[in-house]
Amino acid sequence: MGSTGLVRHRSRVADRLRVVLAGSGLLRRAVRIYVGLEDRSGVPADAAESMIASSMTLIVAEELGADERAAISAAAAVALVYAAAQIRDDARFGDPAQAINAGDLAFALAFGEAAAVGEAVLRRVVGAAVEQIERRASDGNRHGTARAPEGLVRCAFAAGGLVAGAPDDVMCSLDRIGPEVCGGRTESVLSACRRIGFSEEGANRVAKLCAALPPEPERRTG
Q: Around Cβ 141, how many Cβ atoms within 10 Å?
C-alpha cells in the first residue's frame, strides 16, 4: 500500500488543517499556503513536501495503536510548526511584519492543537517551535535556514508515540530516530522502526518519507 498509504496520511492531516485554518483573513490564507493546502492563487494544492513530518506522526501513532483523532491533531500541530518557520524564512512573503504575524498565528494554532491532545505533546511541540526560533536567530535571520530541522522531526516521531501512550523505552528509541532521518540514513531508520515493533509496511513508509525529506541546509559557523 506504500504510496497510497502516504497519500492517505497527508489527506487526513490536510482535512484537519482545513478546519483549523478556515476563514478568509489574510493571515489564515497565508498559513494555508505554507501548509500546502492551496497555492498563491487560492487553487487547492497537494501538500506533499509540507506534510512529510506530520505524516511521520500519523504513521508512528498508527503503528503503536493510538487514537486516530488525537493522532491527527498532533500531526496538524507538527505541520503548523513547520509552516510557521517556512513563512518567516520566505523572502517572497513581501511584508516582513505580516510574515511575523502569520508565523505567530501558525505557532499559536499549533499550540492549540497540541494542547487538545495533552500536556506531553504540547511540551514537545513548544520545544520544536523554540528550537526553530532560536535556530533562525543564531543563523542571523537568514532566509531558508529551517527546511528540515532535526528538532521538528524528533517532535514528529515523539508526538506519534505520546498519543499512543508508548512506554519510556519506545520513546527513547523514537527520539533516536530523528538524527537518522535527517541524515538520510534510510537503512538505519528501517532497522530502528523494526526494533520498535513496526510492521514491515509501516517501517517502509517511514523510510520513504525519510528519503523524501528535503535536506537541511548547512548552518553558518562563523
A: 11
